[in-house]
Amino acid sequence: SSGSRGEALKEKRTQILSRGLPKQKPIEGVKQVVVLASGKGGVGKSTTAVNIALALAANDSTKEVGLLDADIYGPSIPKMMNLKGNPELTPKKLMRPLKNYGIACMSMGFLIEETAPVVWRGLMVMSAVEKLLRQVDWGQLDYLVIDMPPGTGDVQLSVSQNIPIAGAVIISTPQDVALLDARKGAEMFRKVHVPVLGLVQNMSVFQCPKCKHETHIFGADGVRDLAKTLGLDILGDIPLHVNIRETCDSGQPVVVSQPQSDAAKAYLKIAMEIVRRLPVPPA
């Protein structure tokens, strides 16, 4: 019948399309992967990734957390986590992550000179991403937070198609230009069947340290409006605060150096919201 012929054709098409995609393979020892992404650079994504990784560990001391810096061209995790040096190799020739504040970290920044530019074409970048995903001995992790490079290019697609991702978090400022790209980022993850857990509105409001007057430098509620349009949740707001920038620049992120501050509490709340939305991890 024409119905069964149509079904057979549909199945054949699905098979052909799926041939081109790599088979997803979990990272050994890692229970759940959470990616932090932004369509645009300069919206504070790496700062957010670092503080969220620390907040996940602070909220539940029984959980082991890792942080992978997937930004090949501009790795910033080593500086923010106050880590230097080259990873040691295990007998199986896997790299051991460097550790600080209880978080296991891996970054391209550990493998190249701090001031050396990475002048690579796409294939070399993909090879580096593959190494960071597959040639690292993470031990046993409950959560691996991946700090994605900005944009919706090869690295994002490669990570999304190579490993199972429990959820993606999109970071944006309330500025219209950033929101356009944040929307593209969310749509990209939906296309590759990665659940988007929600959005984080970063640099949402600036409070004058002297008079306490609040100013919405990048606009107000732009991320909230985008979340409504996309049918997504807002996981939290992070203020534009000099302490957040200074603590990360000095390698002492605000969640560990000023845990009682409003900024740290904002990250702790977001980490809690992320965990609430994650699927039940495998036993």
In short:
By secondary structure, this protein is an alpha/beta fold. The protein contains ten helices and ten strands. The strands form two sheets. An eight-stranded mixed beta sheet has the order 3-4-2-5-1-6-7-10, with helices on both faces. Strands 8-9 form a two-stranded antiparallel ribbon.
Model description:
The chain has 283 residues and is an alpha/beta fold. It has one domain: P-loop containing nucleotide triphosphate hydrolases (Rossmann fold, 3-Layer(aba) Sandwich), CATH 3.40.50.300. The protein is built from ten helices and ten strands. The protein has helices at 2-19, 45-59, 77-80, 122-134, 154-162, 176-191, 222-230, 242-249, 254-257, 262-277; strands spanning 30-37, 65-69, 98-100, 103-107, 141-147, 167-172, 196-201, 206-207, 214-215, 234-237. The strands form two sheets. The protein has an eight-stranded mixed β-sheet with strand order 3-4-2-5-1-6-7-10, with helices on both faces. Strand 6, helix 6 and strand 7 (196-201) form a beta-alpha-beta unit. Helix 2 (45-59) packs across helix 10 (262-277), helix 4 (122-134) packs parallel to helix 5 and helix 6 (176-191) runs parallel beside helix 7. The longest helix is centred in the first third of the chain and has 18 residues, at 2-19. The model has no long low-confidence stretch (mean pLDDT 80). It comes from Cochlearius cochlearius (Boat-billed heron). Belongs to the Mrp/NBP35 ATP-binding proteins family.
